[in-house]
UniProtKB/TrEMBL annotation:
<dbReference type="InterPro" id="IPR015421">
    <property type="entry name" value="PyrdxlP-dep_Trfase_major"/>
</dbReference>
<dbReference type="InterPro" id="IPR000277">
    <property type="entry name" value="Cys/Met-Metab_PyrdxlP-dep_enz"/>
</dbReference>
<feature type="region of interest" description="Disordered">
    <location>
        <begin position="1"/>
        <end position="29"/>
    </location>
</feature>
<feature type="compositionally biased region" description="Basic and acidic residues">
    <location>
        <begin position="1"/>
        <end position="11"/>
    </location>
</feature>
<comment type="similarity">
    <text>Belongs to the trans-sulfuration enzymes family.</text>
</comment>
<dbReference type="GO" id="GO:0005737">
    <property type="term" value="C:cytoplasm"/>
</dbReference>
<dbReference type="GO" id="GO:0019343">
    <property type="term" value="P:cysteine biosynthetic process via cystathionine"/>
</dbReference>
<dbReference type="InterPro" id="IPR015424">
    <property type="entry name" value="PyrdxlP-dep_Trfase"/>
</dbReference>
<protein>
    <submittedName>
        <fullName>Cystathionine gamma-lyase</fullName>
        <ecNumber>4.4.1.1</ecNumber>
    </submittedName>
</protein>
<dbReference type="InterPro" id="IPR015422">
    <property type="entry name" value="PyrdxlP-dep_Trfase_small"/>
</dbReference>
<dbReference type="GO" id="GO:0004123">
    <property type="term" value="F:cystathionine gamma-lyase activity"/>
</dbReference>
<keyword id="KW-0663">Pyridoxal phosphate</keyword>
<feature type="modified residue" description="N6-(pyridoxal phosphate)lysine">
    <location>
        <position position="204"/>
    </location>
</feature>
<dbReference type="GO" id="GO:0030170">
    <property type="term" value="F:pyridoxal phosphate binding"/>
</dbReference>
<keyword id="KW-0456">Lyase</keyword>
<dbReference type="GO" id="GO:0019346">
    <property type="term" value="P:transsulfuration"/>
</dbReference>
<dbReference type="Pfam" id="PF01053">
    <property type="entry name" value="Cys_Met_Meta_PP"/>
</dbReference>
Length: 382
């Protein structure tokens, strides 16, 4: 359990100090990574030890897990995994058995959807895919052992009311698991809204530099936590200590990065929205006052996020040329990094989107420079 020293502080302070040990003379603020497979282990109480073997635990993981827990909320515990997909698997597989039902949404992280439909489906789990609306989730809650919800959705940026869905799921005896990757724990706290678990791909905002793969599970549910830990131990879904240390080091700038990225995302979305009806079909960003998700986002989210979309319709060729014409915006498939990235989302064939939908992840470059870069690329490819 994470200690309570940081509860009275703001997000920026938590991000800097989360998971750090108490001050000790002549010791570093953040101890270096512990590279170990075996540990000294005298006596017979092997499984009573905190670190019996490297697959079961590592002091560097522990520090990062405490840090993530402190960012997700008070009285929270967390586990780290080598990817966001591994984190999803560690929650879904232990909780579901043949004959159970899991609910996932049509517009969400594709690998999470495929993990449910292809892998769990083959094991006899009934998988129901539904639209990204609060009404659809509430209606689907009865009979579901687990409901997996991503809000905002990716790439549609639709929002679902977590508190309303949590109430419906719990009334039906199920568990609500929220993929909070797009918002980050500083942008939204699903556990405070009633979710049983909050999942992250830490490859995105949490680490923020596009150089790590990482996943996290945060929860107050002791049974869920124990099941996910057991899955990690037995499946060997473990994070390297150096990656864990790098991730922890990156947390100190999370609030600064997120604040700048969100401010720039709103400025860019506003500039692009002025082109709607001219050469863009639509712009989606929860921070725009006219966005369909804005009212719920204002109540549910602490920040509107770093990702927006703009739609060039079914003109795939223009979308390709526009991305190629960008000087600063990198064509890549990810988000949450200090680098601004964009992609034509239809190239994957996993989402029900137009051929010209562009997902843009805003980095920490100057907003005016990014607006100028996108403007010249759009103008050049009219």
């Amino acid at each position: 359990m994470a200690d309570r020293r940081l509860e009275r502080f703001g997000d920026g302070t938590r991000a800097v100090h989360a998971g750090l040990p108490p001050a000790e003379q002549e010791q570093p603020f953040l101890p270096g990574p512990a590279f170990a497979a075996p540990y000294h282990l005298r006596g017979d109480d092997a499984f009573g030890a905190a670190y019996p073997y490297g697959r079961y635990g590592n002091p560097t993981w522990t520090a990062l897990e405490q840090a993530v827990a402190q960012l997700e909320g008070d009285d929270v515990e967390a586990l780290v995994f080598p990817s966001g997909s591994a984190a999803i698997a560690a929650v879904l597989f232990p909780l579901l058995r043949a004959g159970d039902t899991v609910v996932v949404q049509e517009d969400a992280y594709p690998t999470g959807r495929m993990l449910a439909s292809d892998e769990l489906g083959e094991l006899g789990v009934t998988v129901r895919q539904i639209p990204s609306t609060t009404e659809a989730f509430v209606a689907a809650a009865p009979g579901a052992a687990v409901v997996l919800l991503e809000t905002p959705s990716n790439p549609g940026l639709d929002l679902v009311d977590v508190a309303a869905v949590a109430e419906a799921v719990h009334a039906a005896g199920g568990r609500l698991v929220v993929d909070n990757t797009l918002a980050s724990p500083l942008g939204q706290r699903p556990l405070e809204l009633g979710a049983d678990a909050s999942l992250l791909s830490g490859s995105k905002h949490l680490t923020g530099h596009g150089d790590l793969l990482l996943g996290t599970v945060a929860t107050r549910d002791e049974e869920l936590l124990a099941a996910a830990r057991r899955w990690r131990e037995r499946a060997g879904a473990i994070l390297g200590p150096f990656e864990a240390w790098l991730a922890h080091r990156s947390l100190a700038t999370l609030e600064l990065r997120l604040r700048r990225q969100c401010d720039s995302a709103l400025a860019i979305a506003t500039a692009l929205a002025a082109r709607v009806g001219d050469d863009l079909l639509a712009v989606r960003y929860p921070g725009l006052p006219g966005d369909p998700a804005h009212a719920l986002a204002s109540r549910q989210m602490r920040a509107f996020g770093t990702v927006l979309t703009f739609d060039l319709g079914d003109d795939a060729e223009r979308a390709r040329r526009m991305l190629a014409a960008c000087e600063l915006v990198i064509e890549a498939t990810s988000f949450g990094s200090v680098h601004t990235m964009a992609e034509r989302r239809a190239r994957w064939g996993t989402d029900a989107v137009t051929e010209g939908l562009i997902r843009l992840s805003v980095g920490i470059e100057d907003a005016d420079d990014l607006i100028a870069d996108l403007t010249q690329a759009l103008d050049a490819t009219r």
